[in-house]
Design brief:
five-stranded antiparallel beta sheet; Pantoate--beta-alanine Ligase, Chain: A,domain 2; alpha+beta
Length: 155
């Protein structure tokens, strides 16, 4: 005589649909976390850029104090890290470079060395956004790079 045990049998576990829903939710949360993490990294690199440019600014002011108020003359865009190799040593500067190896900090001065601008391209914002530090003491974001006709584009 056979006893039918199907009535007493209980299913234990999750259905395939329940597992797929949970996996989809975990995937969505992971992608949101990754986007947020990437944005945070870009902001951190931008913060480092601003700090590095401030170091250059202090070193350039020290240089000008030692040279009758004249800054190093570079009338074309010059990679700021090259100050360490150019013979124009900037006092107390370790010559930091952009955290992204494809970008550099840039320097430009007027032909008489009376004014300069340093700038770096920012990552966390739209393309073409720069952080500019000027000899006048101004610093801030700009959509244009400095030029000899407009050495400090920061408003």
């Amino acid at each position: 005589m056979k006893i039918n045990n199907k009535k007493n049998y209980k299913m234990i576990g999750f259905t395939l649909i329940e597992l797929l829903v949970v996996i989809a939710i975990i995937g969505i949360l992971a992608s949101l976390a990754l986007v947020s993490y990437t944005r945070s990294q870009k902001q951190a690199r931008d913060t480092r850029r601003k700090s590095d440019l401030k170091q250059y600014q202090v070193a350039l002011e020290n240089y000008a104090n030692q040279n009758n108020g004249i800054y190093p003359v570079k009338t074309t865009t010059f990679q700021a890290v090259s100050f360490c190799n150019s013979g124009q040593a900037l006092y107390g500067l370790s010559c930091p470079d952009d955290p992204d190896a494809t970008r550099h900090y840039n320097y430009l001065s007027l032909s008489d060395g009376s004014e300069y601008a340093l700038w770096a391209q920012l990552e966390a914002y739209q393309t073409g956004q720069y952080w500019v530090v000027c000899s006048s003491g101004k610093s801030g974001e700009s959509t244009t790079q400095p030029s000899t006709s407009s050495i400090c584009p920061v408003p």
